Amino acid sequence: MIDRITRRSIQIAEFPLSGRVVPEYEVNEIREVFEWPYRIIYLIEADPSRVEGLAVVHGSRKHIGLLRE
User: Fold this and answer.
1) Residue 50 to residue 45: CA distance in whole angstroms
2) Helix/strand/coil (H, E, C) string of the chain?
3) How many CB atoms lie within 10 A of CB 46?
4) Fewest CB within 10 A of the end CB: N or C in the chain?
5) Residue 34 CB contacts under 8 Å (≥ 6 apart), including other chains
6) Number of Cα atoms under 13 Å in the Cβ half of residue 17
7) pTM of the model
8) Cα–Cα dist 45/63, whole Å
């Protein structure tokens, strides 16, 4: 599983817009990809060649807030 998530992170780095917008936030810069059963949530920085990993969450868990209000 760690290898699969690592490979997916390489995809994110190369193609940051390949993930979908996270429905809980509806912010274009916060995206996710799935490596079942996990959601990999990340932020596309102002410089689109940079991304920041925010969370790896098991799909069966209730989503936790990532943004400060």
Assistant:
1) 5
2) CHHHHHHHHHHHHHCHHHCEECCCCCCCCEEEEEECCEEEEEEECCCCCCEEEEEEEECCCCCCCCCCC
3) 6
4) C
5) 40, 59
6) 5
7) 0.83
8) 22
